[in-house]
Amino acid sequence: MIKALRLDKLGKLRSYPADMRRLMVEALIALAWGRVLKQLPFARVSPSLGEYMKETSYESEREHHRQTVQISRALHLVSPHVPWEAECLVMAFAARRMLNRRHLPSTLYLGMRRDEQGKTAAHAWLRSGRFYLTGAKELEQYTVVGQFAKGF
């Protein structure tokens, strides 16, 4: 089901500082790109995700951390209002794209678990330095089955 773009909510965009508004527009575009990537076969997307089963450093500079927090905030503000599904993998792809534009390193994680009914569940999250931009709330419930490091 496609939900309608909530223009009334996006109208509140004016209440944010100009730099955050620009970041939110970039987040909207990145989320659209993430949704496109999710539709493609994973074998086609995975070569662009970085080095398989590698991790980037947990160390980061203060400015790097500030930028990752702002990117995460913009994505989390915008994602509930887009007319397409913007769950964990789409969010991780979008955050990765935004970090790549700034030449900031990150690691994208893919995890699996069994739910209460024994069904397999998947999750994706993205980390840059010590900060988890997306998917942090549930990551401890999942076993990492793949990770992709993108360093600069």
From TrEMBL:
Location of the Microcin J25-processing protein McjB C-terminal domain:
39-145
Source domain of life is Bacteria
Which InterPro entries does the record cross-reference, listed alphabetically? McjB-like (IPR053521), McjB_C (IPR032708)
**Name listed for the protein in its UniProt record:** Lasso peptide biosynthesis B2 protein
Q: Which organism is it from?
A: Paenibacillus wenxiniae
What lineage is on file?
Bacteria, Bacillati, Bacillota, Bacilli, Bacillales
